[in-house]
Write a structure and sequence with these properties.
alpha/beta, Rossmann fold, Transcription Regulator spoIIAA, 4 domains, 6-stranded parallel sheet, 5-stranded mixed barrel, 33% helix, globular, binds 5'-deoxyadenosine, binds iron/sulfur cluster
Length: 434
């Protein structure tokens, strides 16, 4: 009988892809199969995120539960960003943990599995040319890493300390992987990196041709049978005109752009070391919308960064009103170890922070409701990817609206024109018209 793997994945899309690589290695080399039943698992893995404090605090209580519920002899491993930053402290605090595997050491999963109390968390380890085995959670959409690590020094962010310096994966390997995914039936690829439009700055070997992100997109879009290209996350600082033009004019690139604003105040942006001002951000949005009016724009916002005054927060509100984002991910600032901002004074009162977050989220919902009313009766091409429990199938439009319609398996992996009949905050309902 095959051994069973239970894996829980927290955090970003990068972590989801790391989990797919872990599953692939354990399937191919160790004969594991995944299970959603913790109690029957021979190996329990948690792929952690450390970007904010809360999930880290939760880790140890969750590990305690895993340890209580696991079947006798089952192993527990901690992977991902928290593994990178806490290292052997995890085993000190939870001695029943069998191994710790950092976010940049995924390729060593089968090694640590057989060593008792192994801790592999080297953030300088270079996996950029490692040939991972193939495993995909969805046959319709393929997540593909294009770089590892991050070279930015945003003062709030722990990621450079958990995923190390930025190294681009050679374009030939990315194109091969995309081609393989398309050969296996995927019509959409989703390119992943901490900072995708900085692609090509550094490769592990100096022999690689210096292809930039715009050129990578051009090359990928030549793959026959590939219909859609998405990517995350681009950095507003690197959104040059050439990139925006390619985005707007290349028909295979989905018209959905994530533009992490973080703050609308140029002063706060400077303290965050984001490398752009409010004016630059607004200028990029204007350029993007001028060249690509149908684009949907999502963002990340941090409220109550140290030193953020009421006037600074008003600047963020002003950008919200001017841009009218299609989606926002908003957070209260959370001080992180090994970051510059953890030492900043002028901490914002937690009550004020909560008020700002609620205000921002309420404003977003109000702006979104106004905007989404206009969607009624519009027709979008939907790529169906998911079977819902209630006789519906769902998928996304090119500009990233989640749309469901009555239907079954035969729609999965297919494109249909769908007319919106009902508005929802996160999911629209529609009927197929062609
Ligand atoms: N506190 C709050 N939010 C953070 N993010 C990153 N670091 C922190 C932090 N210390 C947010 C940013 C980033 C998203 C992935 O998480 O908005 O874009
Ligand atoms: Fe992803 Fe950042 Fe969380 Fe690591 S810390 S899992 S890179 S969001």
């Amino acid at each position: 009988m095959s051994k069973k793997l239970f894996i829980e994945t927290l955090g970003c899309a990068m972590n989801s892809r790391d989990s797919e690589h872990i599953i692939a290695a354990l399937k191919e080399k160790e004969g594991y199969e995944t299970t959603s039943n913790l109690k029957e698992a021979d190996l329990i893995l948690i792929n952690t995120c450390s970007v904010r404090e809360k999930p880290v605090a939760k880790l140890f209580s969750e590990l305690g539960v895993f340890n209580k519920k696991k079947k006798e002899g089952a192993k527990i491993g901690v992977c991902g960003c928290t593994a990178s930053h806490l290292g052997d402290e995890i085993i000190k605090r939870a001695p029943y943990v069998n191994f710790v595997l950092g976010a940049r050491n995924v390729s060593k999963i089968t090694e640590v599995l057989h060593k008792n109390k192994a801790v592999e968390v080297d953030i300088n380890y270079d996996e950029s040319e490692f040939a991972f085995d193939d495993f995909r959670t969805s046959p319709y959409k393929a997540y593909i890493n294009i770089s590892i690590g991050c070279d930015k020094q945003c003062t709030f962010c722990i990621v450079p300390k958990t995923r190390g310096d930025e190294i681009s994966i050679p374009d030939a390997l990315i194109i091969q992987e995309a081609q393989r995914a398309v050969d296996n039936g995927a019509k959409e690829i989703f390119l992943l990196g901490q900072n995708v439009n900085n692609y090509g700055r550094r490769f592990s070997s100096s022999e690689h041709e210096k292809v930039n992100f715009t050129e990578l997109l051009r090359r990928l879009s030549k793959i026959e049978g590939l219909k859609r290209i998405r990517f995350t996350s681009p950095h507003p600082f690197h959104m040059d005109d050439e990139f925006i033009k390619e985005f707007a004019t290349n028909p295979k690139i989905c018209k959905s752009m994530h533009m992490p604003l973080q703050s609308g105040s140029s002063k706060v942006l400077k303290d965050m070391k984001r490398g752009y001002t409010k004016e630059w951000f607004l200028n990029r949005v204007e350029k993007l919308r001028a060249m690509c009016p149908e684009v949907s724009i999502s963002t990340d916002i941090i409220v109550a960064f140290p030193g953020e005054s009421d006037a600074d927060f008003e600047e963020t509100i002003d950008v919200m009103k001017q841009v009218r984002f299609d989606q926002i991910f908003s957070f209260k600032y959370s001080p992180r170890p090994e970051t510059q901002a953890q030492h900043f004074s002028d901490v914002v009162d937690p009550e004020v922070a909560s008020e700002r977050l609620s205000y921002l989220q309420a404003l977003y919902t109000q702006l979104l409701d106004e905007k989404s009313q206009k969607q009624l009766g519009k027709v979008y091409k939907v790529y169906f990817e998911e079977l819902n429990a209630d006789g519906y199938v769902s998928g996304r439009s090119d500009n990233n609206l989640v749309i469901k319609t009555k239907g079954s398996e035969e729609l999965l992996g297919e494109f249909r024109d769908v007319k919106i009949t009902k508005i929802g905050r996160t999911i629209y309902t529609g009927e197929i018209v062609a």
